[in-house]
Amino acid sequence: MNKREVLEQLDSLIGNEVWIKDVKALKIAKKIIKEEYKFKSLCMSIILFITIIIFGSFVAMTYFMYYR
Questions:
Q1: Which UniProt keywords apply (predicted)?
Q2: What is the pTM of this model?
C-alpha cells in the first residue's frame, strides 16, 4: 500500500464513530506514518545523489584514462 491509501484508510477509521482512545491512537499512527514516509523520501534522495556521484566519478575516470 502506498502512503495515500494508508492515510485514506486512517482518515476513514477516524471519521467513523469509535471510542475516543481509538481516535487518539489512530491520529498518532497517522502522524508516525507521515514522518516515516518523509524519512523514506529523504533516504531515497540521498541514495540517488550518492549514486550520481559514483557514476560521475567512473565516467570522469574513464575519460582521463583513455582520452588524455
A1: Membrane, Transmembrane, Transmembrane helix
A2: 0.53
